[in-house]
Amino acid sequence: MKSTAVLSFLLLLSVSSFASDEVVKKETIKPEEASITHPEFGTLVFEDKFDRVESQELKDEPGNGWATNSDLHAQGNKQADLRDGHLLIEEHADAVHSAVVKHAFAFKDGTIEMKVKFSEESDVLRINLCDYNEKSVHAGHLANAIIGTRQVTLDDAKTGMMNLNIQAARENKTLSEEQKQELRSKSKEIPYQVSLNQWHQVYVTVSGDRISCTIDDQEVGSFRSPGIAHETKTWIRLLVLGSVSIDDVRFWRKSQ
């Protein structure tokens, strides 16, 4: 995936309203605590194998505390589909925003684990860390691991592209050279190719101001930036361009 595709994805998010406060309050669900621990990842607080069926096929019904943006941005059309024991997230043709499936997860340091499958080279999965109560950014955006079929991008959205002061300066075309240079330091692009139509094991880990991504037991890369160390990450959002399947999701909390 080329750098321009990632930039277009960032710009699309920056101009789209993600959710109203009313919707956020209705969707806030505390994940069930679990007693399983891992020496590196911490405590398992949420797990989903998607081994259930929906009651209908017209609307999103992911269950288990997941919420979507289909009513807000896809005219209510289905974008999250339980299929054969996994979840398919797919942009609808009428959508005005990338497809979003999200779940509450309160943590400071932790790991997001899942299996991921891409069907087209243009497919992109953004694993987004969010805090709706953080008012210095657009729609709670804090940091991202953006996984494409040819590149992984790690970024600090809080002090970078999603910062409201930065967005205002971009809109008014008043970004200083210093700000432009600073923005360039807020993300890291790492060439990495994944095969299509195969499951890949993905781990995204946050520790202090560091975010890292591991795919199929290989650390693709890591990135440090102040916004990543935000104290109160409360949601994980999965944003999809194209069509991406996920399975065996686990949220691990190292600290809160």
Number of helices: 5
The main pleated sheet reads as: 9 strands, antiparallel
Number of strands: 16
Note poorly predicted spans: 1-8, 10-34
Brief characterization of the structure:
The protein is an alpha+beta fold. The chain has helices spanning 3-15, 21-27, 70-73, 164-171, 177-184, and strands at 37-38, 42-48, 67-68, 80-83, 86-90, 99-107, 109-118, 124-130, 141-148, 151-156, 187-191, 200-207, 210-215, 218-224, 233-241, 243-255.
Question: Could you describe the 3D structure shown?
Answer:
With 256 residues, the chain is of the alpha+beta class. It has one domain: Jelly Rolls. The protein contains 5 helices and 16 strands. The strands form 2 sheets. Strands 1, 2, 4, 5, 7, 12, 13, 14 and 16 form a 9-stranded antiparallel β-sheet that branches. Strands 3-6-15-8-9-10-11 form a 7-stranded antiparallel β-sheet. The longest helix has 13 residues. The radius of gyration is 17 Å and the shape is globular. 43% of the residues are buried.
List its traits.
256 residues; 42% strand; alpha+beta; Jelly Rolls; 7-stranded antiparallel β-sheet; 16% helix; disordered N terminus
Q: Topology of this structure?
A:
Blueprint: H1 3-15, H2 21-27, E1 37-38, E2 42-48, E3 67-68, H3 70-73, E4 80-83, E5 86-90, E6 99-107, E7 109-118, E8 124-130, E9 141-148, E10 151-156, H4 164-171, H5 177-184, E11 187-191, E12 200-207, E13 210-215, E14 218-224, E15 233-241, E16 243-255
Antiparallel strand pairs: 1-2, 2-16, 3-6, 4-5, 5-16, 6-15, 7-12, 7-16, 8-9, 8-15, 9-10, 10-11, 12-13, 13-14
